[in-house]
User: Which sequence fits this backbone?
């Protein structure tokens, strides 16, 4: 009764202009929702990294020396080892992404397994890294922000390694359809992000205290 | 139709301004110092730009809401597009004027002070510690919650905080500036009119943020010099026996742990300096007027008028409290 | 030529519809309520919850106004008052304004772009539960006297463990985490929905303006919210494990908090405001019976506003003593935002001017009434905003009641008025019933008058030197009368909100009677029944212009071929919306709820013990894994061994 009279068209005629039944039910890239999910969360987390790095350099001028005396810069061994392994893992990751696109089940299964193993190795290396920071989080603001950067990255890598492990089990246990291959590809995309963000953080955490 | 005319709002607004605005003590618009006047100039400019824009937009909206027989539709969109361009050009031009004016005024406010009087204000929860600085140590002194400034002269005020962030704001003299732990800010005040003004902490600082006021006395050169000489002098010695007893009580009880009285052994720095307490207008950072009755009630229980204040109610029997009142009322 | 559906086909159509209904049906009863992933049902509860928080937040404001009605009032003490205003601000910003806009979008956007559900439906369900639990947690804490006490901005060091001992601020900081997780989830869903799930033919240049505004808003959420999560995490770490991010004594800095907070906090204002802009465009367009003038300008204005919003945060810090030259840059940037806003105001007025006024029963429809109220209030708030962008003037009125007046004009005038209009506008689609226009008009006028009576005097108070966040004030400074007037006005606003609640409840008790398109609107949302079926669109609609339902007698073009026995949605290409994928969406499930419960345990645990973050992660990981594990009961996601035919 409140309705505007002219608009009260109850049902419209419908005109069929095409058929969609031939479309695939999975895809790679922006025409799959999985890709948008990974992309969205990469934006969020990337922004988190950018702001945390911003906070690092914001705090920098509040100290006369960086790190503040008598703190020594983080020891290089474990962090560098982590970086090398992470960079090397890009090769199988690239290979895995290709195989996923070609939907080759065996290579994908074993590629994922390799990535899971590499991921676990990295988590172990990361645990060692925490022992070599030469500063405690509650010692000063430098210690706090250093720990924050590395902890932030650790939550990401742990999450992704766990994610890969689950996916790994899935490709062995469950029927692998196109959608799963698309998931594997998205997982590989996320790995690039993990490694790329680490390279930046590595330079900041390990080399800023030495260079600046 | 919208029956909203800006007049409907402006009239009561003006009436209210007339009623409350004649109070010069704590007002942005009735300024008594260079810095506040400069900001007031921007305010006037803004008002001259913004009110016509506002009226213009509402009139346009009212005209748009008219029902008229002319054909509706998108046919005139090209012409309207030129209107949009003109409108944006106008808005852009006005903004440029405002940005430029604001920048110039800001520069004027931040000019370097000429041979200024130097004062350091340290904010505490919830009172103001005021130190008059001087290269000559013997000419330095402390006071609290009452700032005296000479008229027509630059005063440079350093702002620091002992605990949380506060903000120093005496609207009649200048805009506000925060007092931040770990940092020192500075501002210049150039008062132009003799009188009493009121300032108040403007950054939420905890339970008694509301009771953290500051009295400002702007005086002519002679008056200021006299006040300064009085502050530099040691307070009067207690005259009566009761006041002497009060001094003894003050120094031997909890009072002296937080309060200082120059020339005595009371040297605490947690609370306001009380050297010339009785010469001040207000008590407890503008909470109460300074008189014997209020002082007595304040000492009896500071938590009543100022719940959360860091001064505890020290248990004293009324006679001892009266003695302390006598002593403190003698600190002129 | 259109193909009329003849009798033979009607039977098939009926069978198809029944199959669709079975496929998209929720489980019956309470379990269905817990497990649903239907964006419409979730949006209903999201909107309802946000409005409940709005009313509680408003009630807190009424209590504050009682306290301030006269000088040196003893209605409540400072501790209570500080908790009230902290809770009022936090609830309005984090639990009402942002969530309610996103909630409306969760309902509207998928229908507007012609999708069968929102992208990531389970994430959507999860988001609601996280939001609900966060809100319930903070209000429980508040009623147990451990509510926030340091203002909604929680400046350090006032919020540090030295000056805010106990758990009050920890609860506040975790509430932030809850609401941000919820908001970020929705932001990702909306980005994906708008970018990948649009109807064929809905190119970027044909996206309805509300969907555009929500897309820009979601990007802003994605870029702004991490800042406050980082800030609040640093705060909790400082309080709980002794880090020194904000401790000036150990190389930290109190202003780091303000930078991080306002890097989020300023865009936050536009996160609330941009959806409102989209709502206004939809309402103005519908009731002017013409496309919005300057579609491209409107979209560009939305993007410019979203972009500029990230360059303004320092104007909240003009009184902190930052270098003057830097401040000038932020003055210019802040004032520049008036240009896109001005462009939009112009375009709407031009639309109304050249449009045909569509009236309801001879009067201006309630949604349009609220939009007109928006103009009167928002333009004023915008102009005081221009004033605040000037450093010298801001240093005078910053943190005074002038600012309180300003941001209520911008947020209530700029966002709540359009929201109220939009709720009246979309209510028929959401519930199948139309709100009473008569009560709507009463609500509008009471709100409009009460609002001005409350907040206009606050401009004066600010100019008369009254700082904000004071629990009382002395007499003799001329503040008594404006405060009393403001307090009276606040109750008029309260009455108006009460009328709205009555209107909603009364209407919901009536039978469904709303037609598909009661206002004669042009977008796809109105092409389906009121309320829409669980599957939204029987067949995928195809769009050939920006206003697919205008003129009213044009047939609706569709594409067939999406499955009826599996929850399929169509994905199209990002730019041109060319059909690309028949993407299966998940069936209902309980695991988003369990995951949200596990996350709630983690967050609350971490308030009391830092190890809660590590140990609490285990149940969450388990719940989330089961959530994503392909189940036999989930044929849509490959859980079954055979595909449908």
Assistant:
């Amino acid at each position: 009764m409140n309705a505007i009279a002219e608009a009260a068209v109850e049902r419209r005629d419908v005109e069929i202009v095409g058929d969609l039944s031939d479309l695939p039910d999975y895809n790679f890239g922006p025409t799959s929702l999985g890709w948008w999910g990974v992309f969205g969360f990469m934006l969020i987390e990337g922004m988190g990294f950018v702001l945390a790095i911003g906070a690092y350099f914001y705090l920098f001028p509040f100290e006369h020396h960086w790190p503040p005396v008598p703190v020594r810069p983080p020891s290089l061994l474990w962090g560098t080892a982590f970086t090398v392994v992470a960079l090397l893992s890009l090769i199988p990751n690239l290979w895995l992404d290709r195989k996923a696109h070609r939907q080759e089940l065996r290579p994908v299964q074993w590629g994922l397994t390799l990535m899971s193993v590499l991921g676990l190795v990295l988590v172990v290396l990361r645990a060692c890294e925490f022992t070599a920071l030469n500063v405690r989080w509650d010692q000063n603001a430098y210690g706090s922000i250093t720990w924050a950067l590395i902890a932030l990255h650790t939550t990401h890598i742990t999450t992704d390694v766990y994610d890969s492990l689950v996916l790994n089990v899935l490709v062995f246990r469950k029927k692998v359809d196109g959608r799963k291959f698309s998931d594997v590809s998205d997982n590989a995309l996320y790995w690039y992000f993990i490694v790329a963000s680490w390279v930046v953080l590595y330079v900041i955490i390990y080399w800023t205290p030495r260079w600046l | 139709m919208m029956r909203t005319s800006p007049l409907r709002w402006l009239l009561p607004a003006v009436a209210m301004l007339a009623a409350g605005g004649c109070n010069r003590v704590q007002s942005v618009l009735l300024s008594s110092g260079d810095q506040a006047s400069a900001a007031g100039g921007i305010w006037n400019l803004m008002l001259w730009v913004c009110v016509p824009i506002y009226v213009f937009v509402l009139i346009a909206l009212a005209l748009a809401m008219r029902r008229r027989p002319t054909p509706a539709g998108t046919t005139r969109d090209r012409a309207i597009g030129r209107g949009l361009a003109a409108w944006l050009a106008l808005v852009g031009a006005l903004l440029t004027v405002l940005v430029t004016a604001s920048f110039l005024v800001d520069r004027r406010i931040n000019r370097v002070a000429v041979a200024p009087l130097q004062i350091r204000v340290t904010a505490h929860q919830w009172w103001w510690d005021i130190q008059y600085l001087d290269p000559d140590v013997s000419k330095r002194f402390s006071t609290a919650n009452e700032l005296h400034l000479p008229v027509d002269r630059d005063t440079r005020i350093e702002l620091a905080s002992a605990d949380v962030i506060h903000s120093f704001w005496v609207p009649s003299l200048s805009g506000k500036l925060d007092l931040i732990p770990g940092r020192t800010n500075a501002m210049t005040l150039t008062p132009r009119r003799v009188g009493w003004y009121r300032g108040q902490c403007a950054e939420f600082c905890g339970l008694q943020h509301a009771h953290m006021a500051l009295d400002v006395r702007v005086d002519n050169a002679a008056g200021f010099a006299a006040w300064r000489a009085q502050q530099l002098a040691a307070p009067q010695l207690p005259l009566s026996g009761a006041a002497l007893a009060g001094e003894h009580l003050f120094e031997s009880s909890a009072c002296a742990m937080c309060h200082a009285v120059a020339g005595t052994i009371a040297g605490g720095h947690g609370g306001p300096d009380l050297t010339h307490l009785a010469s001040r207008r207000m008590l407890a950072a503008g909470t109460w007027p300074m008189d014997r009755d209020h002082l007595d009630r304040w000492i009896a229980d500071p938590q009543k008028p100022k719940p959360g204040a860091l001064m505890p109610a020290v248990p004293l029997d009324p006679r001892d409290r009266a003695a302390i009142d006598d002593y403190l009322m003698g600190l002129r | 030529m259109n193909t009329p559906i003849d009798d033979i086909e009607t039977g098939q159509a009926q069978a198809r519809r029944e199959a669709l209904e079975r496929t998209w049906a929720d489980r019956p009863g309470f379990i269905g309520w817990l497990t649903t992933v239907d964006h419409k049902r979730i949006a209903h509860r999201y909107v309802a919850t946000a409005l409940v928080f709005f009313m509680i937040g408003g009630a807190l404001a009424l209590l504050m106004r009682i306290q301030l009605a006269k000088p040196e009032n003893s209605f409540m003490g400072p501790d209570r008052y500080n908790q009230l205003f902290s809770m009022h601000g936090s609830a309005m910003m984090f639990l009402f304004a942002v969530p309610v806009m996103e909630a409306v979008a969760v309902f509207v956007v998928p229908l507007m772009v012609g999708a069968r559900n929102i992208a990531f439906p389970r994430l959507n369900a999860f988001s609601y539960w996280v939001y609900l639990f966060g809100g319930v947690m903070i209000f429980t804490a508040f009623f147990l006297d451990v509510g926030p006490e340091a203002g909604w901005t929680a400046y350090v060091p006032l919020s540090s463990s030295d000056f805010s001992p106990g758990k009050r601020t920890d609860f506040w900081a975790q509430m932030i985490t809850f609401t941000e997780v919820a908001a970020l989830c929705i932001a990702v869903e909306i980005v994906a929905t708008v970018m990948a799930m649009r109807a064929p033919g809905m190119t970027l240049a044909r996206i309805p303006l509300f969907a555009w505004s929500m897309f820009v808003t979601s990007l802003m959420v994605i870029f702004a919210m991490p800042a406050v999560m980082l800030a609040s995490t640093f705060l909790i770490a400082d309080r709980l494990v002794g880090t020194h991010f904000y401790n000036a004594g150990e190389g930290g800095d109190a202003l780091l908090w303000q930078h991080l907070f306002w890097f989020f906090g300023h865009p936050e204002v536009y996160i609330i405001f941009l959806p409102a802009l989209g709502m206004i465009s939809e309402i103005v367009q519908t009731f002017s019976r013409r496309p919005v003038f300057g579609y491209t300008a409107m979209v560009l204005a939305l993007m410019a506003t979203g972009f500029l919003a990230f360059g303004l945060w320092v104007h909240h810090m003009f009184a902190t003593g930052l270098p003057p030259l830097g401040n000038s840059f932020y003055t210019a940037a802040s004032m520049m935002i008036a240009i896109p806003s001005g462009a939009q105001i112009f375009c709407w007025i031009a639309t109304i001017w050249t449009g045909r006024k569509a009236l309801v029963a001879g009067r201006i429809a309630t949604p349009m009434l609220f939009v007109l109220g928006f103009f009167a209030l928002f333009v004023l708030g915008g102009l005081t905003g221009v004033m605040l962008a000037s450093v010298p003037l801001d240093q005078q009125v910053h943190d005074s009641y002038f600012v309180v007046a300003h941001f209520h004009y911008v947020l209530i005038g700029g966002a709540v008025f359009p929201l109220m209009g939009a709720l009246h506008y979309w209510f028929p689609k959401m519930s199948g019933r139309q709100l009473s226009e008569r009560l709507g008009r009463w609500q509008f006028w009471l709100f409009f008058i009460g609002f001005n009576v409350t907040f206009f005097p606050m401009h004066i108070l600010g100019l008369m030197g009254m700082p904000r966040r004071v629990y009382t004030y002395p007499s003799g400074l001329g503040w008594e009368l404006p405060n009393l007037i403001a307090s009276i006005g606040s109750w008029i606003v309260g009455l108006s909100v009460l009328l709205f609640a009555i209107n909603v409840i009364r209407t919901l008790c009536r039978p469904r009677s709303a037609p598909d398109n009661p206002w004669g609107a042009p977008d796809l949302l109105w092409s389906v029944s009121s309320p829409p079926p669980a599957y939204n669109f029987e067949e995928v609609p195809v769009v050939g212009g920006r206003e697919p339902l205008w003129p009213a007698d044009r047939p609706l073009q569709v594409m067939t071929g999406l499955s009826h026995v599996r929850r399929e949605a169509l994905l199209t290409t990002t730019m041109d919306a060319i059909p690309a994928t028949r993407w299966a969406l998940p069936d209902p499930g309980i695991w988003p709820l369990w995951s949200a419960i596990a996350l709630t345990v983690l967050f609350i645990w971490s308030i009391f013990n830092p190890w809660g973050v590590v140990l609490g992660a285990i149940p969450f990981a388990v719940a989330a894994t089961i959530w994503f594990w392909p189940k036999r009961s989930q044929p849509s996601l490959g859980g079954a061994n055979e595909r449908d035919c």
Chain C touches chain B through 92 residues (CB under 8 Å). Confidence is low (pLDDT under 50) at residues 639-645 of chain C.
